[in-house]
Amino acid sequence: DDYLLLTDIQGLEDHHGEMDFKVAGTRDGITAVQLDIKPAGIPLQVLLDALEPALQARLQLLDLFEETIEAPRSEMKDYAPRYGTVLIPTELVRVLIGLNGTHKRELERKSGARLSVNADTGEVHVFAPNKQSFQEATDLIDICGREEIAVGSRQVVEVLSLKDFGAVVQLHTEEMGLLHISELSDNRQEKMEDILQVGQHIEVQCIGRDLRGNVKLSRKALIPTVSPQSNYQ
């Protein structure tokens, strides 16, 4: 029963006292509490007694804050960090993430933002260092969420990298697709470098998706098949 409550926003009471009780909130109520104690426990009444002086201190601080700014700014500075959520169809989450997360990492590299994807709800949480980064990230996500590559559709793609087994290309939806070496032409190819170059633009056709949902592309599907003509009249 013998105790004294001190109200402060410094660190001395944490060093000399037995309890460090932090109370955060607004004029309407408490939003968060946090407690550090040194003894085995604190009587509930001590905590209850601490809430009233905490309220008075909070109101005094809010009065000082409002002398400088009465309400949050309606528009943040362009250089201020941004956070927001973009919702896309759940069936297109695999498009956004890409093979082993490659497409998601590419979007992060281009925009400078960080993405956290909830595959169950289609929510994409965007953490950006500034306004431009946030806008670029949300635009790229929006492109992925609006359109899915249809099987049989044609488009011009850019070759991003060459592998022994094929080429990784970028579609107009910002999604990445795989052009397997067997889908280059009817002729057997030994090396991708003999046919394609990084940065080259080629026309391909979507021929389906693999078990992971990644786009499968073909170049030879667009090459007309020439039927051998008979030598007999």
Written account of the structure:
This protein is α+β, with helices and mostly antiparallel strands and 233 residues long. It has helices at 12-16, 44-68, 93-97, 102-111, 131-146, and strands at residues 19-25, 30-37, 82-87, 114-118, 123-128, 154-162, 166-170, 176-180, 201-209, 215-218. The strands form 3 sheets. It has a 5-stranded mixed β-barrel. α4 (102-111) packs antiparallel against α5.
Keywords for this structure?
5 helices, PNPase/RNase_PH_dom_sf, alpha+beta, 5-stranded mixed beta barrel, 3-stranded antiparallel sheet
Question: Main sheet: which strands, in order across?
Answer: 6-7-8-10-9
Order of helices and strands: HEEHEHHEEHEEEEE
- Into which percentage range does the β-strand content fall? 25-35%
Could you tell me the radius of gyration in angstroms?
A: 30 Å
Q: Specify the helix fraction band.
A: 25-40%
Secondary-structure topology with pairs:
Elements: H1 12-16, E1 19-25, E2 30-37, H2 44-68, E3 82-87, H3 93-97, H4 102-111, E4 114-118, E5 123-128, H5 131-146, E6 154-162, E7 166-170, E8 176-180, E9 201-209, E10 215-218
Parallel strand pairs: 8-10
Antiparallel strand pairs: 1-2, 3-5, 4-5, 6-7, 6-9, 7-8, 9-10
Summarize the structure.
With 233 residues, the protein is an alpha+beta fold.
